[in-house]
What does this fold into?
Amino acid sequence: QKEVEQNSGPLSVPEGAIASLNCTYSDRGSQSFFWYRQYSGKSPELIMSIYSNGDKEDGRFTAQLNKASQYVSLLIRDSQPSDSATYLCAVIKPGGYQKVTFGTGTKLQVIP
Amino acid sequence: DAGVIQSPRHEVTEMGQEVTLRCKPISGHDYLFWYRQTMMRGLELLIYFNNNVPIDDSGMPEDRFSAKMPNASFSTLKIQPSEPRDSAVYFCASSTTGAGYGYTFGSGTRLTVV
It folds into this structure.
């Protein structure tokens, strides 16, 4: 089982729709969770972090965490073509200090 | 702040040659990470430093890879000798101690070994 698992996609959504990106992780004691966005040919960019169960909203982005189910998700409301990118889920495992383990990413395509 | 600065942006070298990648972290960040990204394996952590000290190098693939951080503002990743399978994008990232602060990545070095 991969430590951080994501569907590679591509996930295609029409402009203005809600994009839902999902991630599961294997280590139950993980405490810190992140979503990074990576445009083609660019470096990953941190867009959301979440540490406790529930929802965290930032503009059009909402991160959701369910530690019991070991599940993290990212919702993008009112999706725009500029949101087309690969979204990387990342986790700090127990005892990992600042060491982040990344999933392989989900490619999102927003269709105008 | 100029962010994490990596050089060179692109490197093409012949198999067997030595390659040195460079990184300047964000001032004040006490963690520095070297990652490698390929289509097949995604982002893989190679090594990370805390306060210039290597903490975990378990991701360094072979003895051909070495990394140093002589001071808080500079780190190198060296591959000697290079092989075609080392072709990838190498990212440096830095972060600061805290409740799981996320990383700031550099622009990466695209390495091609022919």
Observations:
- Chain B touches chain A at residues 31, 33, 41-43, 45, 48, 50, 55-56, 91, 95, 97, 99-108 (CB under 8 Å).
- Residues 5 and 60 of chain B are 21 Å apart (CA to CA).
- Chain B has a mean pLDDT of 93.
- The longest strand of chain B covers residues 42-50.
